[in-house]
Amino acid sequence: MILPIRAIGDPILRKKCLDIGSDYPGLSDLIANMFQTMKAARGVGLAAPQVGKDIRLFIVDSPRMYEDPALGIRKVFINARIESEFDERWSYEEGCLSIPDVREDVERNKKIRIRFLDEKFMEHSEEYDDLNARVIQHEYDHIEGILFVDHLSAFKRQLLKGRFNNISKGKVSVEYKMKFPKT
Predict the structure, then answer these.
(1) Is 127 a catalytic site residue?
(2) Which of 126, 139, 144, 175 is catalytic?
(3) Model confidence pTM above 0.90
(4) 63: domain CATH number?
């Protein structure tokens, strides 16, 4: 089932999300629905708050970002914690399904180490680099209540404020289901 994606301005996008247990109701259906929703929206990552759940869950499906799709990953991250960010910082244009039609350069570390549980609740501690690290950092920010635009300068955010307001009011054209905050 394709779920509506929450737009900027929705309070759930600013919540620091909660850990879950393997007994979380409907978890496997939620994960399947998130993958279906992300694919329909042509995204490469999606976090639970973007579909209205304040839980520490996000998914990544990054093969299409690479010339060699084998370099990408398709994973579920539950109760994730970034343990370290390292190597040089690099800038790359990011966008977000919750903030359609806004794309800006964001600086992030090139490599990360992250501890997480997979969909079978097996624990992992893994390192990622390049675009995989970037997508993970972007989605991880979502479960911390942070949006990619928070990494922009105050001046840049001020310039984009009108666009953010229009998006939150539903004044945006997208090819996927969205849910806009009540005004």
Answers:
(1) no
(2) 139
(3) yes
(4) 3.90.45.10
